[in-house]
């Protein structure tokens, strides 16, 4: 992200002024506005079909992934949303203008799939495009033009009838006009509200947009418009991609953007750092995957796995289910970590019990021993290594951690009585 958000608060309205973007942004929302009441008191957790299956997704695949989510224990660990991403839909709507499932790959229909997921204690997520076409249709990799533009009401009603619990709404357009984006996403928000069914609205205002001063997810606060908002463009399974916010980005690139994000997060309004690449291919080291999960949790980001759950290793399963890290992500205080060192790689967030979670990331290529300044993080109690549960330092003792290249140490420092 090129510019840091500058927030001015006037009465009950939050007016955003974005450095380098030419003045006021047209998003004025109540400081504590929630797009869809009654959902996502903590960041959503689950699984999404796209990273592994793309346009090859089928109902058999989704059912198998759902079964694995339960049998692996990940559902019990909090991963409950099963999101069917792009290409589930037929290339054209039915005669009444409603979306229908691709009959060759979802022959039982989406309502039956929703029933299958709900019977297993899971929640049903589905994808749509905010424009005239979905992203796969925009890119020419899937036929048709079945985006939700000017169909928000009927699509929200359809999703509600199918028992959908989560709607991923992807911009999929090169048009970066803030008013056009806001109009489209607000239309879907209002349509979801009107159904009476509480559905998470997860938006990505960045897809399809090239921007030199940061993509829309980075330069607006969408908290009153959507439940979760993507911060950057799409993730790729590398540590660094060398791209700016307009292209694919690696783990460290997105973590850099999260350092500068200055928006209000909390129950019902979360900043989304994109899906998890843990267990997807073999391009990320074990240390990088640990950093991936830790930095997402510190940012209170949704944790949406993207690996093949039916083939995952025990190592992948155990990492995704890391009790202490998931607890930080799901902490009810809903705070987002802030950088407490000049290099930005030591971050802290206050937790609901008064303790402080601290992450210490080593972005370099050599192992480093790094001190943690108690006075800076604001906690003087016992220090626990969140990964292992072992005590690192007694109350008042100095703290140092040894961190391997691209790895992240995570500490939980209790408050003193």
Automatic annotation (TrEMBL):
- CDD domains attached to this UniProt entry: GH27
Name the chemical reaction catalysed here. Answer: Hydrolysis of terminal, non-reducing alpha-D-galactose residues in alpha-D-galactosides, including galactose oligosaccharides, galactomannans and galactolipids
Q: What general EC class does the enzyme of this chain belong to?
A: hydrolase
Q: Which InterPro entries match?
A: Aldolase_TIM, GH, Glyco_hydro_27, Glyco_hydro_27/36_CS, Glyco_hydro_b, Melibiase_C
Q: Which UniProt keywords apply?
A: Disulfide bond, Glycosidase, Hydrolase, Signal
Q: In which domain of life is the source organism classified?
A: Bacteria
Protein EC: 3.2.1.22
Location of the Alpha galactosidase C-terminal domain: 348-413
Under the heading Gene3D superfamilies, the entry gives: Aldolase class I, Golgi alpha-mannosidase II
Where does the record locate the signal sequence feature?
1-19
SUPFAM superfamilies per the UniProt record, alphabetical = (Trans)glycosidases (SSF51445), Glycosyl hydrolase domain (SSF51011)
Family assignment from sequence similarity: Belongs to the glycosyl hydrolase 27 family.
Q: What is this protein called?
A: Alpha-galactosidase
Organism equals: Williamsia serinedens
């Amino acid at each position: 992200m090129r510019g840091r958000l500058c927030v001015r608060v006037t009465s009950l309205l939050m007016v955003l002024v974005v450095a380098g973007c030419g003045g006021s942004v047209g998003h004025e929302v109540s400081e504590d506005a929630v797009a869809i009441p009654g959902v996502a008191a903590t960041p959503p957790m689950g699984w999404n079909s796209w990273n592994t299956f793309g346009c090859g997704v089928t109902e058999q695949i989704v059912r198998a992934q759902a079964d694995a989510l339960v049998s692996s224990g990940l559902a019990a660990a909090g991963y409950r949303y099963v999101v069917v991403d792009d290409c589930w839909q037929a290339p054209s709507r039915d005669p009444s203008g409603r979306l229908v499932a691709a009959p060759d790959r979802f022959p039982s229909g989406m309502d039956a799939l929703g029933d299958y997921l709900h019977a297993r204690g899971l929640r049903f997520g589905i994808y749509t495009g905010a424009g005239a076409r979905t992203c796969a249709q925009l890119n020419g990799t899937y036929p048709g033009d079945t985006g939700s533009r000017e169909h928000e009401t009927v699509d929200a009603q359809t999703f509600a009838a199918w028992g959908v619990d989560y709607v991923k709404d992807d911009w999929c357009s090169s048009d970066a006009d803030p008013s056009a984006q806001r109009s489209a996403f607000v239309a879907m928000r209002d349509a979801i509200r009107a159904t009476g069914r509480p559905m998470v609205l997860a938006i990505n205002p960045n897809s399809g947009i090239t921007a030199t001063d940061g993509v829309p997810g980075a330069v607006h606060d969408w908290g009153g418009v959507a439940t979760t908002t993507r911060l950057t463009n799409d993730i790729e399974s590398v540590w660094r991609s060398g791209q700016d916010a307009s292209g694919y980005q690696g783990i460290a690139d997105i973590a850099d953007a999260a350092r500068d994000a200055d928006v209000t997060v909390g129950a019902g309004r979360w900043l989304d750092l994109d899906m998890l690449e843990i267990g997807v291919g073999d391009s990320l080291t074990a240390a990088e995957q640990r950093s991936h999960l830790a930095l997402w949790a510190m940012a209170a980001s949704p944790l949406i796995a993207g690996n093949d759950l039916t083939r995952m290793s025990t190592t992948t399963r155990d990492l995704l289910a890391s009790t202490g890290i998931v607890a930080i992500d799901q902490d009810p205080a809903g705070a987002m970590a802030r950088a407490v060192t000049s290099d930005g790689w030591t971050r802290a967030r206050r937790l609901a019990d008064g303790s402080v979670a601290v992450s210490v990331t080593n972005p370099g290529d050599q192992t480093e021993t790094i001190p943690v300044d108690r006075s800076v993080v604001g906690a003087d109690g016992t220090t626990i290594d969140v990964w292992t549960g072992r005590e690192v330092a007694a109350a008042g003792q100095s703290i140092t951690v040894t961190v391997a290249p691209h790895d992240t140490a995570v500490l939980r420092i209790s408050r003193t009585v």
